[in-house]
Amino acid sequence: MRAELGPLALIAGYCFAGLGVLAALRLVRLTGRGVAAGLGLAFVVGVALVSIAEIELLVIGASVGPATFAVLIALFGGAGFAVAWRRAGSPRPSLRRRGGEGGGEGATRSRQRRSWWSRDARRRSMRRLGVDRWTAIVVIGALAIFAIVSFRWALVQPLQVWDSWSIWARKGTLLYDYGHLPTAFFTSHVYTFMHGDYPLLVPLYESSWFHAVGSANTQSLHVWFWFLFAGFLWATAYLAARVARPIVWAPLVGLVAVTPAIWNQLMTMYADVPMGLFLMLGVLCLGIWLTGRRPRDLALSAILLAAAASTKNEGLTAVVSVLVVAAVFAIVTAPRELSRLRALRPIGLAIAGVALALLPWRLWVSAHHIKVEIEASKGLKPSYLSAHSGRIEPAFNALFSEVANQGNWAYLLPIAIALLIAALTVPRLRSIAGFYGLATFGAGLLVLWAYVISPAELNWLIITSASRTVVGPMMIAIAGSFHLAGALMRDVKRIAPSAARERNDRRGAHAQAPKRARTRRAPSASSR
Amino acid sequence: MTIILQAVGVLAAGLVLAWLLASALAPLQRFRFAGVGIAVVAIAGVLFVVHALEIGSGLPESTATAAKASLFDAEHAGNPSANNAFLVWARRQMLAQSGRGSTYYLDPPSVLQNAELGQWSTYVLLPERATAKLAEADWIVFYEATAASFAHVRREVGQLIQFAPGFAVARRSNAR
After folding, report:
1. C-alpha B105: how far from its chain's center?
2. In a 3-state reduction of DSSP, which class is residue A54?
3. pTM: predicted TM-score of the whole model, two decimal places
4. In this structure, are residues A190 and B128 in contact, taking their beta carbons and an 8 Å threshold?
5. Looking at this predicted complex, what is its ipTM?
6. Which of A23, A118, A329, B2 is most buried, judged by most C-beta within 10 A?
7. How many CB pairs under 8 A join A and B?
8. Phi/psi of residue B171, each to 5°?
9. How far apart are CA B86 and CA B141, in angstroms?
10. What's the pLDDT band for A105 if we cut at 50, 70, 90?
11. CA gap A378, A345 in Å, rounded
């Protein structure tokens, strides 16, 4: 009985905590439909918040188990809902496509709403809704079938792949067995192979599952990762719906779900893809914040980015890249009436928040002299870098061949590049396209830097890790694809047959006019 | 280079689509790059179907195969060639007599030096902790030990509890 009820209680707990925080941030409507739509994001946010809090507790020597979990979810969920209900009297903001590209969008929407009851407008809207809705229904239906088949598969999979048991499930089992951080394991040189410096989010996530099912049952762990992935896809759809229409986000969500590099790697039970899932959602939120400047989007982004950096060291480098680029864009694209300092304040607070969430673990690692795989300080010395410069080319080639492997990455990179180029040609999208492009590039550069400065033998490093370390930059690029495709497709709609006829007639008349008479040009995209 | 060509292909497809659909969809006539969005949606849709079928078609067979394995085999699939029955037994022995958190020394030391067997053994023997030095251990876990190996540590141990020839655990006489 516990094997069934435990996981349900666990999932409900994470959802409750996440939902409370999302409600407090006014990022989810507390209606049946609103909660249902935001449940995936609530689960992911719940996992992020509770795990980060548990890491801090472990670091100060507290024990972490079902009781701590219950207290934390009550704290996050309870406090969140209390704040939300206190605010219930104040008007609720609409979440639909807020923070899109350009401040005029809200006004356009309200004009559209006002004209909703006119027959023509309604017919047009219904027709447009039709294609969008059908696309979403078909993709979600197909994903539901895939989810059922893959759930049955995940139920019986053994834990086979080396690092999954040697690093991640080992730490998960330790946390489950001891309930606190067993320092002796992390400091012992016998256990150097388990990389004591790696952050603890995945082991904590696994140990929470072990507590829920009542034993360190590694076979059922795949189901637990399946839930994380399902929550991520749900959350992606929820967030992407703010910047893209269903006809845009639904096929992209579907593609991300079945991209071999994501699905296959996730089911190895390594931490790279879970890190990428948090990272992608965090970057998408950051992109939404950059276009709309609503603090709540930035707060959510900070939570998710902190979770990404608490999952894997590669997550930390990706988060650094993303936040630095966001800070630059926050200044460059700030409204003129804002001083640089004031423009920097929100992102500065977010960076401080993320740093504060990560600092305790880093301090603990440092205080216990736990061997760190790559020493960043060394990698900043010009002499060290120059001595390792011979590693740049082979490392670059190996990483590039990974992202160019379309059998694994399902053309997601060429898609992202094409969208980036297209968006850069549109003035209103130039800054957001620049953000995603530079953040991806920066994260990729930091991965390359890590390969260059690593003391490990390069060939071995490439063979064992290149397919995984590219996950971070790729997930940033994918976040950008959602946002940019949505922005490019924002106003695309069918032309009514009568209007098309009229236009064709005009075009016919126009073609007959002498060429020199054509002085007026159609407005360019830049004037939109 | 291939990636750039692929990206250019997506861009070109988008512009061609914009040209073809300009009379049916607004604002493609004046905003051609919106066609790139349409191309991306179309490509994503096709790739979704292709990969869903590709991954999905292999899952039922894999499920059927994995379902046949026992829970013990599934939990020890990381290294099926190790003597997992012994490792589980040794873990239970140590837990029953010393409780959680005791330390052990794997004998012969070559077990720990073998990356796969060493890491796997220390994983199955959790929550007990391996030590590199005999003097720091509460227990000695003999894994394929020879008679010489047993003799070597004979004066260090109390009672030897044997699982099978060469496989045994022994509590050190001065264990805590």
Report:
1. 24
2. helix
3. 0.90
4. no
5. 0.93
6. A23
7. 230
8. -85, 135
9. 10
10. very low
11. 31
